[in-house]
Write a structure and sequence with these properties.
Helices cover 37% and strands 18% of the residues. The protein starts with 5 loop residues before the first strand and ends with a helix. The chain folds into four domains: 6-214, Histidine kinase-like ATPase, C-terminal domain (Heat Shock Protein 90), CATH 3.30.565; 221-349, Ribosomal Protein S5, domain 2 (2-Layer Sandwich), CATH 3.30.230; 386-475, 3-Layer(aba) Sandwich (Rossmann fold); 488-608, Heat shock protein 90, C-terminal domain (Four Helix Bundle (Hemerythrin (Met), subunit A)), CATH 1.20.120.790. Helix 7 packs antiparallel against helix 8, helix 8 runs antiparallel to helix 9 and helix 8 (353-373) crosses helix 12. It is α+β, with helices and mostly antiparallel strands.
Length: 609
């Protein structure tokens, strides 16, 4: 047997206060000590596997699993591997010199032989020292894979002092034994450790055993080629990630190796009209180690409601892996994901339009938000984004413009897209539009008030107006003036009667020549005010000056028989009653009641007046 290993010394660091910094500031979440130690153990196992492949290790690999052991009585947590292990000299080099990363040296030495899938996890030199967030002293018992190596034991109590002595270990590998501090005994609970391992280690590439069970899937689907996978594989993986969710609509498999490395699978969930639901988040991994589910810089904002995983070794993280750092790769990855999603949606639209239309009520929120927020996405999405009319028929932007151009172009050559945001409340206006042969679109999602503004900004010579924003001769002003059956004096008298009948004096009365089959009185709120109200409701913000007062327009139909009846009544009281009834009917049509039944009721009532 060779000479006894025994040494005492001081860890080579640049400040005496490194451990308090690690414990209080460097790692914001203490539970990640287990992520770091298990990742290091996986790293050591992968290195041995690679060295065996290179012919530099000729022994038996055996079972390379990593084992996490809890001893509640001894108050210890042990992470064991059968990887490359360390000699006493390597302990001094890799453990005592805090900023030096063994993984970095290994990668540099073997960079020409490693492929991307065989890359090493651990390239954060301070990872091991996260142990001291929860342990009052830490032991390492390790034996190098190199022939003739002896086992060594390293111990440190969190000060700058350490001790290395000889140890007993039958085979290569490393045990890291954490003696848990009194203020961290929450980690001596089996369920607590299980939850941490499930969170950070469920897809690590080396088997992780805890409490007698392997807890991870070592080959998740994003590490495989799409050609190896079936629809069932993708659906089963989705259930594994989100067991309580409905089946996804479809998915996108990400795989790029230039100018950055990125793999993953993104799923489109069934979102419907709830814009705020973000319960299930996209998970970010670095070489199968879970990092975070806060991916707002990696994933475009409009796709944050997608589900799935992204894995990239090129995502820049701070030393604790807790936060993304500003980097050109982040922007590149963001742009790649945007392009990939747009390409997939375009492909689905072209290959199966009927199927795409069936899904559009679910995916429309993503597409519309993308059009609003991302210019590059808009350039692709304008060809497959759909709008739907009140009969449920879908159109692309170009298709709808072509369909309505002849009948809905105003005197200035602007194509007017009429829309409703409430089929029931605006039914009377919709029916009036149909009598004129006008198409009416349905925009009733939470994002449509912003989407409408964007369409008007993007589409050339196109205006969008809600179907109840004005009388139809003004909504689509074709420069044609209907003749009034009333004299100018009668129109002025009628205007005065209705102005006197207004209770709040907030409306503006006009007497207009409209078709006789229109309602006797139409109350509308101008498009500008409607949009302001809709956008204010969506934002949830209240004006510092209070709510904006409604400024309704009251259009009295000079050509309706009721107008003539009102003027011919000699009894002033009867005249006032008829004016009031006309206004009440207009208010009902404006939305106080709703649906086709209301429309029929109004028309029957008008006929009996």
């Amino acid at each position: 047997m060779s000479s006894t290993i025994q040494e005492k010394g001081q860890i080579s660091i640049h400040t005496e206060n490194i451990f308090p910094i690690i414990k209080k500031f460097l790692y914001s979440d203490h539970e990640i000590f287990l992520r770091e130690l298990v990742s290091n153990a996986v790293d050591a196992s992968q290195k041995l596997k690679k060295l065996s492949g290179f012919g530099e290790f000729n022994g038996e690999l055996g079972d390379l699993k990593v084992t996490v052991t809890l001893d509640e009585e001894a108050k210890t947590i042990t992470v064991s591997d059968r990887g490359i292990g360390m000699t006493a000299e390597e302990i001094k080099k890799y453990i005592n010199q805090i900023a030096f990363s063994g993984a970095s040296e290994f990668l540099e030495k073997y960079k020409d032989k490693l492929d991307e899938k065989g890359a090493i996890i651990g390239h954060f030199g301070l990872g091991f020292y996260s142990s001291f967030m929860v342990a009052d002293h830490v032991e390492i018992i390790t034996k190098s894979f190199r022939e003739g190596s002896e086992a060594a034991r390293w111990i440190c109590d969190g000060s700058t002092e350490f001790e290395i002595t000889e140890a007993e270990r039958a085979e290569h590998g490393t045990d890291v034994i954490l003696h848990i501090a009194a203020d961290s005994e929450e980690f001596l609970d089996k369920n607590r450790l299980q939850s941490i391992l499930d969170k950070y280690g469920r897809f690590l590439p080396i088997p992780i055993e805890f409490d007698g069970t392997v807890i991870n899937n070592t080959t998740p689907i994003w590490t495989k080629s799409p050609s190896e996978l079936t629809d069932e594989d993708y659906q089963n993986f989705y259930k594994e990630l989100y067991p309580m969710s409905e089946e996804p609509l479809f998915w996108i498999h990400l795989n790029v190796d230039y100018p950055f490395n990125l793999t993953g699978v993104l799923y489109f969930p069934r979102v419907k009209n709830d814009f705020q639901i973000r319960r299930e988040k996209i998970q970010l991994y670095s070489r199968q180690v879970f990092i975070t589910d806060e991916v707002k810089d990696i994933v475009p904002d409009f796709l944050m409601m997608l589900h799935g995983v992204i894995d990239s070794p090129d995502i820049p993280l701070n030393v604790s892996r807790s936060f993304l750092q500003a980097d050109s790769n982040v922007k590149k990855i963001n742009g790649y994901i945007t392009r990939k999603v747009a390409d997939k949606l375009g492909e689905l639209f072209r290959n199966d339009r009927a199927g795409f239309e069936q899904k559009f009520d679910d995916i429309g929120l993503f597409v519309k938000y993308g059009i609003i927020s991302d210019e590059k996405f808009y350039e692709k999405a304008k060809d497959f984004c759909l709008v739907k009319n009140v009969d449920g028929k879908y159109f692309t932007f170009d298709e709808f413009s072509a369909a309505v151009k002849e009948n809905q172009t105003d005197k200035n050559g602007t194509v007017v897209w009429l829309y409703t945001n409430d089929l029931q409340k605006q039914d009377g206006f919709i029916q009036s539009a149909r009598k004129r042969g006008y198409e009416v679109l349905l925009f009733d999602t939470v994002i449509d008030s912003h989407f409408i503004n964007q369409l008007e900004y993007k589409l050339e010579k196109t205006s969008l107006k809600r179907v109840d924003a004005d009388t139809f001769d003004k909504l689509i002003d074709k420069g044609l003036n209907n003749e009034s059956v009333l004299s100018e004096d009668d129109r002025a008298k009628l205007k005065t009667l209705f102005e006197e009948a207004l209770e709040n004096k907030t409306g503006t009365v006009s007497v207009e020549a409209m078709p006789t089959d229109e309602l006797p009185v139409i109350i509308t709120l101008p498009e500008f005010f409607r949009r302001m109200k809709d956008m204010s409701a969506l934002s949830g913000e209240r004006s510092m000056f209070g709510p904006m007062p409604d400024s309704y327009n009251i259009a009295v139909n000079a050509n309706h028989p009721l107008a003539d009846r009102i003027l011919k009544l000699s009894d002033t009281d009867e005249q006032k009653v008829l004016v009031k009834q006309s206004l009440d009917l207009a208010k009902l049509a404006q939305g106080m009641l709703s649906g086709a039944d209301l429309t029929a009721f109004i028309r029957r009532t008008v006929d009996t007046l």
